[in-house]
Amino acid sequence: MATSTPVRSRSGDDAPVRRRGTRARGSALSPGVWLPTAVAVVLVGFAWSAIAADQPYLLPPLSEVGAILVEDPLLFLTNAWSTLSIALLGVACGAGTAFVLALLMSEVPVLRRAIMPLAVVLNVTPVVALAPALVVAFGFGMAPKVIVTAIITFFPVLINVTTGLRSVSVPVLHVFSTLHASRMEVLLRLRVPSSLPYTLAALRVVFPLSIVGAVVAEFVAAGSSSGLGTMIRNSAATARLEYVYAAVACLATMGVLMLALITLLERRLLFWHESQQRTTS
Amino acid sequence: MSDDRIEVRGLTKTYEGGDPRRPALDGVDLDIPRRRFVSLIGPSGCGKSTLLRVIAGLEDHDTGTVTVFGSTPESMCEAKAVGLVPQTPALLPWLNVRRNVSLPARVNRRAGRGSEDPDLLLRMVDLEDAARRYPHELSGGMKQRVAIARAFGLRPDLLLMDEPFSALDEFTREALQLQLLGLWERMSTTVVFVTHSVREAVTLSDEVVVMSARPGRVHEVLPVDLPRPRDGAVVTGPLMHALEDRVRASLQSAWEVGAAPDDLVRR
């Protein structure tokens, strides 16, 4: 349960609501939080094992999947790093470009009118269909995979950051206007920090999406020799399901770690935002 | 054009899409001498806040002139000579209290205007202990005190306040009124204060400008001849009550002047 520290000022008005960092401690250890998840995991495990025992061509035994991961962790780590590099590079290029374009569009309306329709068309285009053409153009290296991932991550960041940069409270803008703040000052001191919740919400979507993009790119880019997507494609072709699911488990772990990283960033950067505050009553 | 007063002459303002027969402001004339505390009061829609924003240079107007101590509102803002306290505190939630108060000093440094020590300002509004706290950790009254300290930070020639206490409870409101008067007397700033509260207007002001609606006009300017400082004895005395009654009567006649036929029909 979160606690509050009431402070009475000399003027009589009651203070606050909650001090920074008084987030409830130990709540994650409360059985009410972890027990339902644990029960669900155990039930899924039992169901999996039951199916695997009866129909091993549908699902491999969990013990085999675990054994493969333990026997050759380096194999999975190497391939995971390959996929992760594509995903991260793709996010850096896609989200970075989107962020810069959103900044420019917020300052130059004509640019917004020029770029936004193109961005929408790019968003509705099935990027997977572009991948073979990108392989022809850029070869079997990282480039086509990074481009596919960048395109997938571009649009959510562009839309969210554009919205965030425009979501500034009018009274605050009036205060800046009476101070005759320059456009750059309004942008850097007001619009960019105001857009942070939107930017991080976009990253929460695009980080897992980047893994999907990287894996799909590896599927499509025939001839690539590394990456969990390549491993899944090759293992499925030879019916080695335990390798397929071990790679899927690695991908899921990567996704969870990325989400955890974003959650951590949100707690650090958005401590002031409603989304990070809990009610005390 | 005088440099010792705010002069508003024949000011007319119609909002885009608004009824041109009922402008938000219509032929407003007003003089506010330097270092006076003037309240604008009137029924909803009478253009009090619009007038405030025009004086602040935040809105254009159709006809008429506005000069602030001999300059245009825009020139005053360029020189960082205008402070604004909006209805909501308008603090930056990612900055702590001290950084919020010192924000005006960090913005538009080209103006070269000196600023007060933020710690001194916080002491003046009894918030020195809250300097490192963030807006979400403050009560509504504390946030508004931070906004007031921020506005006084540049020792502005003109301070514009748009119903700054309207969201506060009565007790906090009265405490903040006293703090505001203390700061104003110390800083010798001209204050234009928009309010819906008759008591607040009379307690704080040298003059109360009563406005009428549809169209927005200055109905009457009432001097408040209460002695300063406005301590407990003054604000509970018979003269205070007489002045409040006078403002209420003026408001009533302003409302009748501006009332639309629809307003008079009981639904």
Automatic annotation (TrEMBL), chain A:
<comment type="similarity">
    <text>Belongs to the binding-protein-dependent transport system permease family.</text>
</comment>
<protein>
    <submittedName>
        <fullName>ABC transporter permease</fullName>
    </submittedName>
</protein>
<feature type="transmembrane region" description="Helical">
    <location>
        <begin position="146"/>
        <end position="176"/>
    </location>
</feature>
<keyword id="KW-0812">Transmembrane</keyword>
<dbReference type="InterPro" id="IPR000515">
    <property type="entry name" value="MetI-like"/>
</dbReference>
<keyword id="KW-1133">Transmembrane helix</keyword>
<keyword id="KW-0813">Transport</keyword>
<feature type="transmembrane region" description="Helical">
    <location>
        <begin position="80"/>
        <end position="104"/>
    </location>
</feature>
<dbReference type="GO" id="GO:0005886">
    <property type="term" value="C:plasma membrane"/>
</dbReference>
<dbReference type="GO" id="GO:0055085">
    <property type="term" value="P:transmembrane transport"/>
</dbReference>
<dbReference type="Pfam" id="PF00528">
    <property type="entry name" value="BPD_transp_1"/>
</dbReference>
<feature type="transmembrane region" description="Helical">
    <location>
        <begin position="28"/>
        <end position="51"/>
    </location>
</feature>
<dbReference type="InterPro" id="IPR035906">
    <property type="entry name" value="MetI-like_sf"/>
</dbReference>
<feature type="transmembrane region" description="Helical">
    <location>
        <begin position="116"/>
        <end position="140"/>
    </location>
</feature>
<feature type="transmembrane region" description="Helical">
    <location>
        <begin position="243"/>
        <end position="265"/>
    </location>
</feature>
<feature type="domain" description="ABC transmembrane type-1">
    <location>
        <begin position="80"/>
        <end position="266"/>
    </location>
</feature>
<keyword id="KW-0472">Membrane</keyword>
<feature type="transmembrane region" description="Helical">
    <location>
        <begin position="196"/>
        <end position="223"/>
    </location>
</feature>
<feature type="region of interest" description="Disordered">
    <location>
        <begin position="1"/>
        <end position="29"/>
    </location>
</feature>
<keyword id="KW-1003">Cell membrane</keyword>
Automatic annotation (TrEMBL), chain B:
<dbReference type="InterPro" id="IPR050166">
    <property type="entry name" value="ABC_transporter_ATP-bind"/>
</dbReference>
<keyword id="KW-0547">Nucleotide-binding</keyword>
<feature type="domain" description="ABC transporter">
    <location>
        <begin position="6"/>
        <end position="238"/>
    </location>
</feature>
<dbReference type="InterPro" id="IPR003593">
    <property type="entry name" value="AAA+_ATPase"/>
</dbReference>
<dbReference type="InterPro" id="IPR017871">
    <property type="entry name" value="ABC_transporter-like_CS"/>
</dbReference>
<dbReference type="InterPro" id="IPR003439">
    <property type="entry name" value="ABC_transporter-like_ATP-bd"/>
</dbReference>
<dbReference type="GO" id="GO:0016887">
    <property type="term" value="F:ATP hydrolysis activity"/>
</dbReference>
<keyword id="KW-0067">ATP-binding</keyword>
<keyword id="KW-0813">Transport</keyword>
<dbReference type="GO" id="GO:0005524">
    <property type="term" value="F:ATP binding"/>
</dbReference>
<dbReference type="Pfam" id="PF00005">
    <property type="entry name" value="ABC_tran"/>
</dbReference>
<dbReference type="InterPro" id="IPR027417">
    <property type="entry name" value="P-loop_NTPase"/>
</dbReference>
<protein>
    <submittedName>
        <fullName>NitT/TauT family transport system ATP-binding protein</fullName>
    </submittedName>
</protein>
